[in-house]
Amino acid sequence: MKKQIVKKTNKNKSARVISGSGIANILATFNNTIITITDMQGNVVCWGSCGNSGFKGARKSTPYAATIASENVGKKALEKGIREVSVYIKGPGMGRIPSVKALKAAGLNILSITDKTATPHNGCRPRKRRRV
């Protein structure tokens, strides 16, 4: 006799009330682009990435993959009630600008775009000089 597997569903999860504005965080690395949309308090509403959208390997790092991933996340956010977002971009990847354009194309109103990429300030201490 096999045991039946019963999935438990959380009724309160989809019943959350979300205001119309939020924050879109875009992390564009050389290998992937990750888009997270949160409400104004920082609670994650929806997220997505190029790998989550079906791209694998070297195709994850392309601007086209970032566009598809951002469109998917934008549509999810519209369903949850987010209408306008402030965009924070981080990282040097190729999916930076296409992902912002795709969020706009998905129907979200973009209030501001801020670049949060970390810049080095002199870095670590160098190694000692080699003596030969």
Automatic annotation (TrEMBL):
TM stretches of this protein: none
Molecular function in Gene Ontology: rRNA binding; structural constituent of ribosome
GO CC terms in record: ribonucleoprotein complex; ribosome
rRNA-binding as UniProt keyword: yes
InterPro entries: Ribosomal_uS11, Ribosomal_uS11_bac-type, Ribosomal_uS11_sf
Domain of life: Bacteria
GO biological process, one term: translation
Keywords of this entry: Ribonucleoprotein, Ribosomal protein, RNA-binding, rRNA-binding
HAMAP family: Ribosomal_uS11 (MF_01310)
Family: Belongs to the universal ribosomal protein uS11 family.
Function (record text): Located on the platform of the 30S subunit, it bridges several disparate RNA helices of the 16S rRNA. Forms part of the Shine-Dalgarno cleft in the 70S ribosome.
Subunit structure: Part of the 30S ribosomal subunit. Interacts with proteins S7 and S18. Binds to IF-3.
PANTHER family to which the protein is assigned, alphabetical: 40S RIBOSOMAL PROTEIN S14/30S RIBOSOMAL PROTEIN S11 (PTHR11759)
NCBIfam families the UniProt entry points to: PRK05309.1 (NF003698), uS11_bact (TIGR03632)
Name the record gives this protein: Small ribosomal subunit protein uS11
Gene responsible for this protein: rpsK
